[in-house]
Automatic annotation (TrEMBL):
Signal peptide: none annotated. This is Hemerythrin HHE cation binding domain protein. It holds the Pfam family Hemerythrin. It comes from Stackebrandtia nassauensis (strain DSM 44728 / CIP 108903 / NRRL B-16338 / NBRC 102104 / LLR-40K-21). Residues 9-127 form the Hemerythrin-like domain.
Length: 185
């Protein structure tokens, strides 16, 4: 988790990646009960859409601006976002007990791990070298704030009572509704 003093955009993006990977591990654990797995799925889909939207708003414009190959790199990253969201739309229609669930989940995880690997090996180090510290801190804070104000799904450990920040219902169409909500805010 990112602390208040560690708000560099690169650190914020990497912290998100680590959080999402932890949720993936629990989703893949056969001992995870189905009700919890369903909550974890809703949580990780929300996190992925929020993360992608924040990258598109803060990280990718900076890459296009600062990097010689920024346009090509960002276009590849955006294509992976589109691919991941298509798989998430399929997953949101499935119950975690459905035999089709695990292959779809494994496909999503494969796409995201590839995306994360590319970002962390190539894009983020280049941006870290090219960006000014103050600019990276400012964009990191903006990314954190945008994710905080866009909270739509409670953490899977939260109570079953809906919270005031539960703005978008989960279920079929969730990915599209969440992305629509995030791009309007």
């Amino acid at each position: 988790m990112v602390t208040k003093t560690d708000t560099n955009l690169i650190s914020v993006v990497i912290a998100d990646h680590r959080h999402i990977e932890g949720v993936f591990k629990e989703l893949l654990n056969p001992a995870t009960p189905h009700p919890r797995r369903q909550r974890l799925l809703e949580h990780v889909i929300g996190e992925l859409v929020r993360h992608a939207t924040a990258e598109e708003r803060y990280l990718y414009p900076l890459a296009r601006e600062l990097l010689v190959d920024g346009d090509e790199a960002v276009d590849r990253e955006l294509a992976e976002h589109v691919e991941a969201e298509a798989v998430m739309r399929n997953l949101e229609r499935l119950d975690v007990a459905d035999p089709r669930f695990l292959p779809h989940l494994e496909n999503l995880i494969r796409i995201i791990r590839h995306h994360v690997g590319e970002e962390e090996r190539v894009l983020l180090p280049k941006l870290d070298r090219a960006g000014e510290d103050s600019q990276l801190r400012e964009l990191g804070l903006k990314m954190l704030r945008s994710k905080e104000t866009a909270s739509t799904v409670p953490h899977p450990d939260a109570t079953d009572q809906p919270s005031a920040d539960h703005l978008v219902d989960t279920g079929a169409g969730y990915v599209n509704r969440l992305r629509d909500h995030l791009t309007r805010t």
